[in-house]
Amino acid sequence: MNRNDIITWLREECSDRLLTLWAQADAIRRAHVGDAVHLRGLLEISNYCRRQCAYCGLRCGNANVQRYRLTREQIITGACQAAENGYGTVVLQSGEDINLTGEMVAEIIVAIKQKTELAITLSLGERSIDDLIVWRQAGADRYLLRFETSDPDLFVAIHPPVAEEYPQRQFLLGELQGMGYEVGSGVMIGIPGQSLGSLADDIIMFSRLNLDMIGVGPYILHPDTPLASQANVPLIADQAPDTVLMTLKVIALTRLMCPDANIPATTALAVLDPQAGYETALQCGANVIMPNVTPVNNRDAYDVYPGKTNVFDAADEFDQRLKQRIRAIGRSVSVGRGDSPHFLASRRSSVQHA
Ligand code: 5AD
Predict the structure, then answer these.
(1) What are phi and psi of 90, to 5 degrees?
(2) For the chain, which ranges sit under pLDDT 70?
(3) 266 — phi, psi (to 5°)?
(4) Taking the complete model, does pTM exceed 0.90, yes or no?
(5) Which of 14, 44, 103, 342 fits as disulfide partner to 260, beta carbons 3.0 to 4.6 Å?
(6) DSSP assignment of 136-169, as one string?
(7) Which residues line ligand 1 (CB under 6 A)?
(8) Which pLDDT does position 161 carry in this prediction?
């Protein structure tokens, strides 16, 4: 599929033709990653952030956020909760928190590995090469770092303090692959200034970067951000809409371009469609869900975008209901770590070539 084909699908409005896109993506998903849905316990370990990203509620300029950092014990308890729920993976996510030191995180990784069989995914932002190496050596398995947009001008416009560092993220993604991490990235859909062509470039970039995991979700306006105060600025011609439909198209096209990657039905999508967002994404190419295992008292403060906490209510009940919802659409709940088939295949081939 070339760029024009992708753009044509992104513009498609005929529901009958779209049904054929969903069906193709669903068939490719089944053939390459199977019917099991992998669950990842998402543990939001700190909402301190040194960045000023124009779209994100956790930006350091937002004084309305009550900042927290979980203790070592809380993090280990959260990971054990994920294991008890039967999830194969815990995702440790935070803002770019410099006080969450390389050493502290490494020690926590070791402790979680001693207590559980969990795969550990880190999503801690742009960190030093040294930290990334130490964490990998401590036992971390995967790293998530979205590149957010493949358009350099748009990237610079929404990431003020990192302007001069572009293309830091694409570079880091390559470094992470070299360190042996399973690597994930992704973008937001419908950022003001993002055209459909740019979104097509993002999808092509997923494939070029040879990613193991790809997460995409709609941009959701956060009132305490610079992008919210620009909300009345006229949109560009060909602006990508921040809708459920556009997100489903991107998920489906990503599945066609990257058949054996793990692709989550993201929380941001479930915020826009709490009733059926997970199910529709799972039927358009997705095969992963990331339920929240953050201590209930801290969840409100991890305010990347509004509405997140409505998706996950009282932890245990949510877990049971989510599993029922997965089975209700004829899918199974995965047991085990749920490594990306793309990663396993590339590791096998690099062993053969060694
Ligand atoms: N709307 C949707 N997604 C957002 N993210 C950050 N802010 C928003 C927002 N306002 C996403 C970014 C980031 C991930 C953790 O959350 O893509 O990488």
Answers:
(1) -115, 135
(2) 161-167, 313-316, 348-354
(3) -85, 160
(4) yes
(5) 342
(6) HHHT--EEE---B-S-HHHHHHH-GGGGGGTTHH
(7) 55-56, 146, 148, 188, 217, 219-220, 222, 268, 304-305
(8) 66
- 265, amino acid identity: A
Whole-angstrom Cα distance, residue 21 to residue 102? 44
**Which residue type sits at 218?**
P
Q: Which of 55, 121, 162 to probe ligand 1 with, by most ligand atoms within 8 A of CB?
A: 55
Give pLDDT, residue 232: 80
Strand residues in the chain grouped as ranges (E) = 36-46, 89-94, 119-123, 142-144, 182-189, 213-218, 264-265, 288-289, 332-333
Tell me how far CA of residue 277 lies from CA of 213, 308, 333, in angstroms: 19, 13, 17
- Write out the two tokens for 222: 């956060």
Ligand 1 nearest-atom number relative to CA 187: 17
- Give the atom of ligand 1 at the shortest distance from the alpha carbon of 145: 18
Give the number of the atom of ligand 1 that is nearest the alpha carbon of residue 56: 7
Residue 98: Cβ within 10 Å count = 11
**264 Ramachandran zone, left/alpha/beta (phi>0; psi -120 to 50):** beta
For the chain, state the CA radius of gyration. 19
Q: How far is the CA of 115 from the centre of ligand 1 (A)?
A: 31
The answer to whether 298 touches 252, Cβ cutoff 8 Å, is no
